[in-house]
Amino acid sequence: MTANTDVNVYPAPTRDWVNADGLRVKFGAHEGELGRGGVVGLSPEVNISEFTIDWTVMALGTDATHNVVFDYDAVFPQGGVLERAEFVVTEVWTGSSTTINFGLIERDDFTTIIDADGIMAAVPLTVMDLIGNRVHSEPKGGYPDVTTYEGAQLGIALTADALLTGFWLTGVPTAGTGLLRIFWRDVLRTYSQT
Questions:
Q1: Pairing with 119, which of 20, 75, 77, 151 sits 20 to 30 Å away (CA)?
Q2: For position 38, what pLDDT does the model report?
Q3: What angle do CA 162, 160, 164 make, to 5 degrees?
Q4: Rg of the Cα atoms in the chain
């Protein structure tokens, strides 16, 4: 067995440890905390991962090489295809010319960034300034073909198990919350019709 890995470099705001087997160890009151993300199965083939995004956590991701991990337990599996994403504003976002980005990091080592803005890129305050606004991201060729905030990891199979990350550009966010939904398929899993 190898030593625990300290994953507190750019984490969500709780200090956790990961054993060599990839399982997290939590301490004290953190053992009972609810996660920030989870998966809802729409059908055997289609899943939605939902994440609560808060400006206090997003502010910890300071640039494309220093991302914040939103939830270490909500994993996108290797071979999964992230089809589209939507960000629903639940509290108005503020800041100084802030834009936010959502991407992916490899689950195995928590340090290899797959793509820092691979899910949504450069989402500005101007589309997050009203409660209920929905920001949509999808790969080219979808319907409707709206690719304004398109991330490069949408529409392709993941090469490794991945976790959701984020960071801000230009100015740190000073308020705001939202719900990020990512629609994906696990194409490596086989399904039976029994």
A1: 20
A2: 55
A3: 10
A4: 16
Backbone angles phi, psi at 55, to 5 degrees: -60, -30
By CB atoms closer than 10 A (0-12, 13-18, 19+), residue 144 is: exposed
With a cut of 70, list the residues of the chain below it in pLDDT: 1-44, 142-147, 188-194
pTM score, whole prediction: 0.78
Burial class (CB in 10 A: 0-12, 13-18, 19+), 124: middle
Q: Give the other-Cβ count within 10 Å of 141's Cβ.
A: 8
Could you count the other beta carbons within 10 Å of the beta carbon of residue 187?
A: 13
Where b means 16+ CB within 10 Å and e means fewer, 42-61 reads eeeeebebebbbbbebbbbb
Could you give all domains of the chain from N- to C-terminal order, each with its CATH number? Answer: 38-186 (2.60.120)
Q: What's the Cα-to-Cα distance from 56 to each of 47, 175, 190, rounded to whole Å?
A: 27, 8, 39
Respond yes or no on whether the N-terminal peptide bond of residue 144 is cis (omega within 30° of 0). yes
The H or E element spanning position 56 is helix 55-58
**Token digits for 9?**
């470099």
115 neighbors 186 (Cβ within 8 angstroms): no
Q: From CA 140, how far away is CA 45, in angstroms rounded?
A: 21
Dihedral pair phi/psi, residue 56, rounded to 5°: -65, -30
